[in-house]
Each structure stands twice: as structure tokens, then as C-alpha cells.
Amino acid sequence: MAGLRRRAVLGAGLATGVGSALAGCTTAEAPPAAAARQPAAFDPESWDSVRAQFSLDPGIAHFAAFVLAAHPAPVRAAIETHRAGLDTDTHAYLNQGVQREEEVREAAAGYLGANPAEIALTDSTTMGMGLLCGGMRLRAGQEVLTTEHDFFGTHEALRLLAERTGAPVRRVRLYDDPAAATEADMVARLRAGIGPATRLVVVTWVHSSTGVRLPIKAMSTALAEANANRDPADQALLVVDGVHGFAAVDTTVTELGCDFLTAGTHKWLFGPRGTGLLWGRAWAAVAPVIPSFSGAESPGREATPGGYHSFEHRWAAKEAFEFHKAIGRDRIAARIQEQATRLKEGLAGISSVRLVTPKDPAVSAGLVMCSINGMSPNQAVQRLRSEHRIDASVTPYAEPLVRFGPSIVTTPEQVDAVVRAVAALR
Fold it and tell me: What angle, 0 to 180 degrees and rounded to 10, lies between the N-to-C axes of helices 317-327 and 329-348?
């Protein structure tokens, strides 16, 4: 396990209340919800207009918005439309649910560069990983390879997989100093860990503990080389927890080359809270875990857990994908990278700060972590909020760090304000 402090999982930055400015607050009381604001007409070419679609408190710099998304105006409107439909004529509105789910799959597929039939709808990244590990078919003698850097949910899902199947789970360390991590070294370490019995390789695209982004495409190439002389039933499958790369990095699942990707849509995509997806191209290796209400016409439908969900949120995920498509996945990724690079350069110039996240944008994404000499991360986050109106979070791991997440709701000017504020902490 990557040293996760279990009690901190839910306490490490949950947004409280519609339009709340708080994400990562350590105080017991939630702030009053921001007054509802009607956004101006949406201009996707204008970053000011993009930010105006959110009801986030404009007096706070929201560098923990990735923890649990605020909803932009199109998503809020879609949720209210579905909620009103369910409240007005529940049964009739629910009868269109399968079609609305298919519309979400189509929107997600367009964003991912995938086939809608390959996409299961979930409630979170963790649910997707649990479905995969709960249903993965492993033969006697096959094993699982993961890393020391993965999230508690992944390690726990793999522990349960090992209990169910008897398959051993091994871990490799991909880097010793995250700030010095390189693509070549990480790929070499992973490749060295793959054995002849390795059937499943489970990694995290962007580590929430350090901000290191794995070179998934290069790792998938390394796996393809290892699989070259193996029977299909023995080939190593690459499973990716993609939550902190999804909607923060400009790529498709085809370009990544992995076999499965699980991600919540309520983080960098700013989709409805409590929504996620699980994409796969090797569904024959996975048995359904929860009976589906969506039918068995496609592997994605069959893998989608049945039961009644918060449908007004699930169906509104379509608008989140459309919102990002209107802005441009490439523009969003560039905006995030611009701010993250600016932040890392600024923090690196402060003598009291140890920058943990690599400066190289090729092995990092939107998350930026650091420590501050003589001050605990909790103290730093509290003071940033109370003294500077900057909202950051603390990583819930054995080595807690101050964590920033520049995104489409922050600006380069706010990044500069963060650097000044951190420099002023004494």
C-alpha cells in the first residue's frame, strides 16, 4: 500500500453544499453555499466565460476543485431537467433511462476515441476498479503486478482479488525520488517486474500522492513486447486508474494502448458528482459482478451495475462531455499544463519549499505537490485559506503533502498569487 492514511480518504477535501467554495477544508463547519448566479451566454473560446459557468465563490482561488467537482451551468441544468422529469412523472421518465445511458456512452466514446459498446457506467473510479478486480478471470498460477504508488482503493481491490483467486500480487517501485522520475526509468522498472505468469498489470496514470504521470503509452508498448510470444489467455493485460489524467491530458484510449481504464467523471471533467466510467477492450477476461439493468447487448452494458442510481446525475454526464468538447480537449490540457508548469517553477524558487512533483510536463499533469519547511501540510493549507483565500488540499498518504490542482476554474494570475502566498508562510 502507498501508505494511505485510511481515516483521511473521505476527509481529504470533500466539497460541501451546492456551489460551495470548499474543497479540502479542515474545519468542521462548512461555509454557506454561494448565492446562485446566472452565467452569461457561454463562449467556449473565453476562459473567463468558462469560469463564469461555475457557481464557485469568486473570492476564493479553487486549487482543490479536482477533489470533487462543482457542476458547470450545462450540467446543473441537465440535472435539474432530469430531476423535474422524475419528480413529475417518474415511471414514464424512467422508461427512457436505457436510451439516456446510451447517449452518455456515445458522448464518452467520442471523448475517449472509443466504441460506446466498450463503456460501462459506474459511480466512481473505485467502483470501476472493484468491478474489474471482482470479475477478472485468472487461472491457477497466474499473478498480478502493481506498484507501490497506487491508491488505497486499488491495493484493496487487488487484495480482495487475491483472496478470491489465490493469485499472488507483487508490487514494484517505479521511482525513488518523484521529482527526478523519468519515462525511461519507470518503463524499465515496470518491464523488469513482468514475469512469465503475469496476467494483470495495474497502474495509476497520475499518482495522487506525488503528481507523477506514468508514460502509459510506453508501458503498453513494453507489455506488447512481453506478450509477443504468449498465448492470448496468458497475455498481460494493462489496467489503468486514469482519474487524474482523464480530462487533464489530451489523449485517447487508443493512443494510450491500455486494455482497461477506470475514471470518475466528477473530477477533472467536472461531471456530475457520483458518476464514472469503465472502458475496456478485453471484456472477455472479466465476468460481470453486479447484475445489469442495461441489457447484455454490449459488454459495456452488461458490465454496468444494475439497481436504481442517482439517475439525474448519471444522465447529465452527457452534458459534461459536451461542455469539454465545446472548449476543446487540447485547449483544456494546454491550459492545465501552462498553469501547472508556472506553479512548479514558482514553488521551486522558494527556499523553504521542496517541490515533489516533476517539473517535466511529460511525466506530470495537473497535480502539483510540495512540502514547506517547518510547517505541516495541514497548517499550510489552513493558513493559505484563512490568510490568502486559496483553497488547497493535503494528500491522504503516509507522507502528507500540500497539493494544488490548477484547472479550468483557476487562472495564471491565481497561480502567481499561490506562489506569493506560499513564500509568505513562515
Answer: 80
Q: Is residue 78 part of a domain?
A: no
The three cell numbers locating residue 39: 452565467
- 293-316 b/e (C-beta count within 10 Å ≥ 16 → b): ebeeebbbbbbbbeeebbbbbbbb
SS3 content of the chain, % helix, strand, coil (to 5): 40, 15, 45
Distance CA 337, CA 290 (A): 38
pTM of the predicted protein model: 0.90
Residues 60 and 147 in one domain: no
Residues 26 and 381: beta-carbon distance below 8 Å: yes
Is the domain of 161 the same as that of 269?
Answer: yes
> Domain range for residue 289?
92-323
Domain final position from 289, 323, 357: 323
- Write out pLDDT tens, residues 248-289: 999 999 999 999 999 999 999 999 999 999 999 999 999 999
Q: What are phi and psi of 338, to 5 degrees?
A: -60, -45
How, if at all, do strands 61-62 and 390-391 pair? parallel
| Beta strand extents in 154-275 (DSSP E only) | 169-172, 198-204, 237-241, 260-264
Q: If you compute the radius of gyration of the chain from its CA atoms, what whole number of angstroms results?
A: 21
